[in-house]
Amino acid sequence: MLDTISTALITGASGGIGEAFARQLAALGKDLVLVARREDKLNALARELESLHAVQVRVIPADLARPDSASDLYDETRRLGLFIDLLVNNAGFAKAGNFSELPFDVQADMVRLNVNTLTELTRLYLPSMRQRRRGGVINVASNAAFQPVPYIAVYGATKAYVLSLSEAVAEEVAADGVTVMALCPGATATGFHDTAGVWVQELSSMPTPDEVVAAGLRAFERRRRTYLHGATNQLTAIASRFLPRRLVVRLTARVMNASR
Predict the structure, then answer these.
(1) Annotated catalytic, 125?
(2) Can you tell me the distance from the alpha carbon of 10 to that of 95, in angstroms, rounded to the nearest whole number?
(3) Tens digit of pLDDT for each residue in 21-68?
(4) I need a labelling partner for 217 at 20 to 30 A (CA). Which of 22, 25, 156, 185 fits?
């Protein structure tokens, strides 16, 4: 599967899971398009990967929470004559707090980035993959996708959307040789937690982005439609399907309260 991919586009590539995708795909000899707001970090990463792996790395700085950013990014890759074989929709963020107290503009940005931009990029790049009958999309969701999550309510809802969308579209394109997978990490040692304001003290005990991405790429190679990283997260997701939903939400609220 991965041997048919020449060029991958990675959003949120300046750190964390996105950077780990860039490093591991470059090590496999894939050309890259790196997208994030922090142009300086992208340029430094691009120079390093080109030097280490003799691949071509293009940098496109963009704030993907901005309306029209997805279509602008697509137009730029078209202008550059690029055919994207693998789209990694990794950009996203969370902000913890009581739903009725968090500023709405923060929540709206979360929905635009985690849902709108991901949806539009997937819609824009899938048709050419289907025509070439190769390639795929990895949508980075979360273990939060499997149950409502009080105190990061909007974030959890956006990731439930990503999981549902990915599984549905995966079925639609399965006969075309294209793979769509929802990668669902649990808590991972990235800067995500500083922004979200949860589990900051537990970073040292979390899986690394490299571990999550390596496992995710193996799952993608096997054409998995959903991959939930970590045995504990897998068991929790299974349990959430069978326990009473109100109980699941109450237990999740206790966990989230303890993490803040």
Answers:
(1) no
(2) 22
(3) 999 999 999 999 999 999 999 999 999 999 999 999 999 999 999 999
(4) 156
